[in-house]
Each structure stands twice: as structure tokens, then as C-alpha cells.
Fold this sequence. Notes:
CATH architecture of the largest domain: Sandwich
CATH superfamily of the largest domain: Galactose-binding domain-like
Number of helices: 15
Distance between the termini: 50 Å
CATH class of the largest domain: Mainly Beta
Shape: globular
Structural class: alpha+beta
Number of domains: 4
Number of strands: 32
Helix content: 10-25%
Amino acid sequence: MVPDALKKARWIWQGLANTDLHNSYTLFRKSFTLDAIPGKARVFVTADQSYRLYLNGRYVCGGPARGFQSHWPFDEIDIRPWLKKGKNIIAVRAHHPGCGTFSYISEDTAGLLLALQAGKTLVVTDETWKARRQTEVRKDVVPLAAQMSYQEQIDLREEPAGWTGASYDDSAWKHPKDQPRVWNAMPWYSLETRGIPLLREDESFKGRLVGIAAGRSAKDAASTRDVYLTRHEEGFAHKTTGPARWPLTIEASAKGRWRSYLVDFSRTVVGCPILTVKGASGGEIVDLTFHEVVDPETLAPYVDTNSWSEVAMGNRAILREGNNEHSFFHPLGFRYAVITVRDAAKPLKLDFSIRSMAYPFTREGSFQSSDQTLNAIWEACAWTQECCSLDGYVDTPWREQAQWWGDARVQAWNTFHFCNDARLLRRGIHCIASQTVPNGLTYAHAPTKAHSCILPDFCLTWVLTLWDHYWQTGSTEAFETHEATALGILDYFRDMTDAKTGLARFDNRYWLFLDWTTLHREGCPSVLNLWLLEALDKLALLYAASGRKAEAKPFEAWSKRLRASLQKLISKEGLLSDGYDEKGKVVAKYSIHSQTLALITGLSPKHEKVMLEKRLLPYLRGEEAFEAMPSSYWATYVLSELAKRGHGAEVAAFIKKHWAKMAEHGTTWETFEPALGNESFSHAWSAHPLFHLMQILGGIRQTAPGWKRVTHDPCFIGDSLECTVPTPLGPIRSSWKRAGNEYEVHLKLPKGITAAPVR
């Protein structure tokens, strides 16, 4: 519901709101007076695309959540702690990329909308505000990555110092020229609450200096559009250095030379970089580049100049005379930063930190085993999940920050084992449903400019997350709200069904992902159709849970036909073929993926033993390498089925073998062996050991919607275990410890949950 105060506000921008928007920053100011600090004070604010809010010179927060202009999100903030009696200044820095990214769709119009209600005082954005385009921020720079917005290169000599404070003189600033537009004017047809809490921005990260270097600046260093590539071409190698305290003392260097400082944050951090420099002459250049991994011998960050993401994670500040402080706008995720200071005629004092920007999860779940490697793996998974939870479940905070929905499903499972918070999943379901193509399919991540990222299999994953939300919360609200989108997806698959085989066909208009491996995709692939079967079964259950069992019958009938069609692909040996080729012939391939999904869907119970013994168990034990090996992401489905079927100890051993290196790094990876400088070392789709370990060693498995029933069957690995699983009804606590040849086992359940042992 839109507050009455915000309905009185007007969208404003400096100059025409649809002109010269490429990588455009605008500053806004408004003063107001309070006779006393009221008991209640709120700001309702949003911007297209994003804003940073200040009150009386102090930073408050940034936003809004990613969304769509047709129902654009706004934020509500309690601002009482920032107010004072007398004159107050509200200030905003807003940014518009001027184009779409993998988390934003541009409607070629920028704007700020704000209403401040402090007691009886009402301040709204209108033509009385003061505004200024930030011409000191260079426009023609390269994107941080192909999926993201732009590098920020700012000349602080031209920035209005102190512009957020009450003492700054803004008389030279202009009033917004563009005709102010009402709150629900196009393209912002309506507004909605963000649906998730404001991001956590109250944490500061500091790294440690681990390397130093010096050299001559490249010929075009001062004018480069890409500080990342230029710095790489100058040579990224560093020499190991001893401990140093912040702020760093930057030694003077001759004109045309630089000094470089490699900073290690010990593990991935996510937030906005803040640079503070004292004693500048004016004109010194500070370049910042951000990385995930470095060469342990040369201390050179790995850079792949042929990276498909065109990674260019870098920013620049040109210093003004005296003291400088600048908070860069865009949140970034990385482990290592390289600070390069150019043209320092005299020594400087430099400080560098990261202000957090992450979803405010509260860790309610915990895992503590006598096996320290498993503990380290669990912590690396939990931290990765926190790093990949922003205003959406993102694949990685490093070079993409896209809300990929295959990833998001696994991330929700992770989340529910350390925090009982389904809001991020619910918000993402809403976002995915808001971007569809005419035939009913959704985009694989949303909002997005990436029309090549329509994945039919991820559309089915989205349907399954309607079930996941119900399973976690016990509520069918998400399904009932988005039923039409689910039906549209199934209409597409109905149209794509081959009359001869009864299976859905490969559609070469779209990217059929399935997994990062060489699975069969052409013709009628089994893996795609098994996901369709699972979606049909879960949709039928959702109708039943909604009290509309009769409406489930068509999907039950479709499921029965599809199941029969797939069963025809089971070989004499008992393995499921990967489908039919383009000519309608059975494919003589029997992947781990097909067998795993056959187990998940209960396709053919009498063949499950063969599928386990011929595919899943050899993979788990490392006894055989198959053509299509599950990725670090897709392995979660294999491990889940094996653990459920009594192979928990072997699953834990597999996790220990394959995730130990990730635990040493501090975050989980995009693949088991990521391409250096290209693929991500902070990818939450592989953080699933978090819940596998809790299910296996803690023995807690949910067996009813809303966690009303669970089973308890701990696997005794090591000498002891303490595990807490959060639920909507309260925490479940499972613990055990070795006592001679026996184990002392404890289970504490909250009211409303019943547990049964596994027989």
C-alpha cells in the first residue's frame, strides 16, 4: 500500500529525465526545520535506478530493491536517529545506468521520489528541491562486467565537498528543470513495498596488507576508460610485505609512477568501498581493482582478458588538495583489492574499508562437529550464502550479481537451514513471474536485459519453488498469487510435446541449460522431461493443498502419461536413457542426471537399485568417471538422494573431499576447479553442504509442510555433534556424543513439531 505522504511527492531529476542518462549520477538536497524531534519520523523513498540517502551529513542507507517500473519498489526508513532540532538537510545521490543490466531493465527515464514525514512536518520531492548532475563522474568508462553497471571514476577536485551537510551552500545548484511527474506517472505505473528488509549496511570490513609493488604508469593510464585492464597490463605482481596498520603511509613517487598495495580480506566481502586520503597535493590518482584469487608465488591477481564476462572490476578517484573521503556507489564482492596510487609528490595517509551491503539474515541455525574440516566447510557454505544474498539471491557478488533461479532454489534450501526467513525467496518468485515472454516462459533471472537467458528448465524450477515456499511456510499464498504464470509455463510445454514420443522437445530458440556438463539436449531429452514430471506432480499437490483437488486432475493425468512415456526409455539393464535424438531414436546414454531425477520422481521403483549401483554410487565413490559429470551445483540433487537412501556417511566423505579446498579459501566455487580470473570463487549454488551436513549428522529431515513433522536419524561421524535447525515453529536442536561404544543422543523439538525415527 502506498503511503499518503508518498502520493504527494513528485518524481524529479536534474534536466530532462530521459536525456544524457548514460552512467548518470545526480545529487539532490532539501532543507527543513524541526521545532523538536518527533516521536515518529519516516522517509519513504525510491529512485530509478538507485539511491544513497544522507541526513545531516550522515549516511542512512541505499536502495531500492531490484524490480520493475510497472510496480516499482519503495523503501521505508525510520530516520529519527539522524534528525536534530532546528535546520536539517536531507541529501540523496542517485544513479541511472542509462541501459539494462543483469539486474535491471531501463525504461530510459530517471527519477527520485521521496516523502519525509516527521510528526506534522512533511517534505516531498518537488520543484523546490536543489539538484546537480555530477559531471565530475566520467561517463565513458567500461562496465564492471558484462552483466553489471559501470566503473566509477570520479574527480574529487570538482566534487562539491561536504554537499551532504547542513553548512554546504547550495545556492548555485538548480531546481529540477524537468516537469515533475506524479508518483504513479509512466513509466512507474504503481509502487509496491520492497517485500524484504533493508540491506545490512552497519558492518565495516578491513583487510590486511600482504603485498607491495611499484612501477611506471602506462602511457594512457591517466586517460584510460578501464582502470582494471590498464593496471593489469602494467604488471600485477607484488612482493610480500610485513604487517601494517591502517591508515597506510603512502610513500611519494615521481610523476608518471605508481605504488601498489595488495590487500587481503581473508575471505569474500560484499559492500561499497570507502576511500579516505589525507595530505593530498591535488591531482593524485587512486585506482582500485577487485579480485577473487591471486597467484601465491607472485601475488598477482589472476586476470582473464578473454573472460566471457569481460571482468573489469575497478574504480578511480582523482584527489583534491587536502583531505578526501569518498564512498563508491556500487556494492562489489571480492576477497582481494589492489590500491594503486599514482603521481604522489609527497607522502599520503590512506585508509580503505568496505561498508557492508547484504541481506540481514540472522543466523539461527548452527553446526558444530568434532570433525573440524566439516565445521570449516559448513562455515564456508554459510558465509557464501550470506555473500550471495543481496536484494535477491544472486549467483555471485563478484562479477554478475544476477538472480539466477536455478541457483536461487538451492540457496533457499541453504537459507532455511540457518535462518527461518522465506522473504527473499518470496520476493524472487515475484520478480521471476514479472518477466515473461508471450508463450508463457519466464526469464532465468529477473529483472534482466538478457534475452538470451530464457531457460525452459529454469522455468520448471520456478514452478518447483512455489512448492518449496509452501513446504517451508505451510502457506499456498505464493502459488495462488502466481498460478497464472505457472499455467502459462505448462501451456508452453504442452505445445512442445511430441505426439510420437509423448515427451517435450528441445526448442532451439532458447538455452536449455540442464547443467554445466555435456548432457544430451537435442530431440526429446529425459532430464528436461523429468523436471516437467516433477513440476506436474508438485503442482497437483499445490492444488490439493489449496482445497481445489478437482483442479489437480488434469495435471495428474498429464503426469501419468508423461511417466509412462519416460518408462519406455528404461533399458533392459534397468537404466533410464537420456532421451530421443532429433530423428526419434533412443539415445544410448544413461547419465547420472537422468537416474537421479528418476529416483526423485519415483519413476520406476523396481529399477532404483540398478540406477544407484550403476551410476550414483560409482560417482559418489570415485570409482568411475562418466561423460556427463554433475557440476558442483547439480551435485546437490545426487547427494540428497543418496543421503536419504542410507549413504549419509559416504556423502559426508564426498563433501569433505571436494569442498575442503573451498573451505580453505573461505567461500564455495562456481565449479570444482574454477577458471582463474573468469569463473567465480563465491558461488552459493555450491554451498549446499550446509544443509546436507545438518541433515546427515544432525539427522533432521522435514516430512510435512511448515515443518510440522520431521524424522530423526543422525549419522554418527566422529565423536560429537551439536546442530540447530530453525523452523517457523521454533528451533530444533539435535546433539549426540560418543560414550564408549554407544552414543548419547538428544533431540529437542519446539511445540507443534513431531518427530519419528527412520525405520
